Amino acid sequence: MSTEVRVPTLGESVTEATVATWFKQPGDAVEADEMLCELETDKVTVEVPSPAAGTMGELVANEGDTVGVDALLATIEEGGSAGKSASAKKEEPKKEAKSSDSEADSGGSGEEVDIMVPALGESVSEATVSTWFKKEGDSVAADEMLCELETDKVSVEVPAPAAGTITKILAGEGETVEAGGKLGVMTSGGGAAAAPKSEAKEESAPASSSAGDKDVEDAPSAKKMMAEKGIDPSDVQGTGRDGRIMKEDVQAAISSTKSSSTPAPAAQAPRAPVSANDEAREERVKMTRLRQTIARRLKEAQNTAAMLTTYNEVDMTAVMELRNEYKDLFFKKHGIKLGFMSFFVKACCHALKEVPDVNAEIDGTDVIYKNYVHMGVAVGTPTGLVVPVVRDADQMSFHAIEDKISELGKRARDGKLSMAEMQGGSFTISNGGVYGSLMSSPILNPPQSGILGMHKIQDRPMVVDGEIKIRPMMYLALSYDHRIVDGKGAVTFLVRVKEALEDPRRLLMDL
After folding, report:
1. Region annotation Disordered: residue ranges (predicted)?
2. Can you tell me the distance from the alpha carbon of 363 to that of 287, in angstroms, rounded to the nearest whole number?
3. How confident is the model at residue 470 (pLDDT cuts 50, 70, 90)?
């Protein structure tokens, strides 16, 4: 009996895709929900999971073929071999030999289980092994954490697929692994002996050599863009599997070419010579993948957007008085503290309705206006800044906003956010005031057109009704893309936020 593997729904207005990569070949054993192949559309990369466990049958669509929605990609043959991985099949003769030798296998009941890279999220094809919590020869319980992987955005923990003993670690700390790749091998049961570490090193060597093989097929969309723009593939640094060039790599090369006509900034210049004494006291640490991504995206924002920042200040007296008056009752009813962030989210949603340009984005020569507010809330974590998204914030109550921000913030600091929870934001709020920042110019979070920077609340003398009074004041900064947002719109947005915060009743009356 066979199961069909078909092209999933690709998204609104997307009718076809290109088969970019097959992770499995005919005859390979697959498990249910294991990634079989990767499809590439004009917008996103879509991973196709296995609908059932079994053995890979015929590949109907090959790499590079264009397929429509619901088109047949391949078949999966169901049978007794479904529960075994390809590597387990290859090891069967060895296991039979071991079972006849009492010294090699004390129990004879252990079964080899592959430790695989889990699904990393949409458009994420690889990760770096950050930390192994176990070493070869260690006994583990089912679902016990074995290692931690680091992607561009989140950390992914890999649990043990069964109870047993770690026999081989194929990907060491610092190595890059692909989605669906093999991290190691363990033997289920309590009587399994650990394999020598030298074997693990010998088996990992071919994997390293194959990773360095440059004879790979580039993504079809990347080849098309290179042909259209007249770019030599040798000038593009591939970041895909086995060094394959992806569409994003071509776009990065185009941006680099455009900026090369201007003098390189000081940060791009070679490092100045240092004395041997100074060098001995320095420490060189490789940037994490998250930090590399943050650096790249922030620089891209500066290179592509006509970014400008406008400022205002807000008197926080009314919000602080309202919060102090109702915070105990709010906590008693909803079980969560009333903070300032919900007021700012509500005020921004209110202002975005009046100035929709700040909530829009540019797509080529089109402007996409969004009739919703997916509010990104920047959160500082030990590994870097991430921006989880509060979806449909304009339709949420104060307590729902506080609850969601609290939940996302905690999961961000624990490295538990999924890729989906950090995508699709239409506007962002960044609160540097929690760290004591008095004034700053936040950088846009592409492709968004606006980001609001909050700052420290500080008592300052202000003139109120002709008298000098001490007021809790906060500076606000709105960075925006001047290609779509005019100065008038940016100033109007900040004024509406200021008015809503200085008189919170306006939020209730929709004024």
Report:
1. 80-111, 188-241, 254-280
2. 31
3. very high
For domain 213-257, give the fold.
Dihydrolipoamide Transferase (4.10.320)
* Alpha carbon distance 208, 203 (integer Å): 9
Q: Is the dihedral of CA 276, 282, 288, 289 positive or negative?
A: negative
Q: In terms of pLDDT, which residue wins out, 102 or 54?
A: 54
Asked whether the predicted pLDDT for residue 170 surpasses 80, the reply is yes
Q: Are 460 and 470 in contact (CB under 8 A)?
A: yes
- What are the distances in angstroms from CA 397 to CA 100, 272, 445? 68, 54, 25
**Residues, the chain, total?**
511
Residues of each domain in the chain carrying CATH 2.40.50.100: 1-83, 108-211
Report which listed range, 65-74, 126-135, 320-329, is most confident.
Answer: 320-329
Q: Give the contacts of 272 (CB within 8 A, at least 6 positions apart).
A: none
Q: Single out the catalytic residue among 42, 235, 328, 486.
A: 486
**Average pLDDT in the 262-270 region?**
51
From 357, 414, 482, 510, active-site residue: 482
Q: What is the pLDDT of residue 268?
A: 54
Query: Does domain 108-211 fall into CATH 2.40.50.100?
Result: yes
Residue extent(s) of CATH 3.30.559.10 domains in the chain: 304-509
pLDDT exceeds 70 at position 493: yes
Tokens of 259: 């900026």
The tokens describing 224, both together, are 């098309």
Residue 199 pLDDT > 60: no
Whether 455 is catalytic is: no
Write down the pLDDT at residue 358: 93
Distance of CA 314 to the CA centre of its chain: 34
| Residue 242 among the catalytic residues | no
Tell me the CATH class for 1-83.
Answer: mainly beta
Q: Is the dihedral of CA 274, 275, 280, 281 positive or negative?
A: negative
pLDDT in tens, 214-253: 456 676 667 767 776 778 787 887 776 567 777 667 777 7
The residues of the chain that CATH labels 4.10.320.10 are 213-257
User: CATH classification of 304-509, choosing from 3.30.429.10, 3.40.50.850, 3.30.559.10, 3.40.50.12160?
Assistant: 3.30.559.10
Q: Categorise residue 501: left if φ over 0, alpha if ψ from -120 to 50, beta otherwise.
A: alpha
Is the pLDDT score of 302 beyond 60? Answer: yes
d(CA 356, CA 450): 11
Q: Which residue has the higher pLDDT, 197 or 371?
A: 371
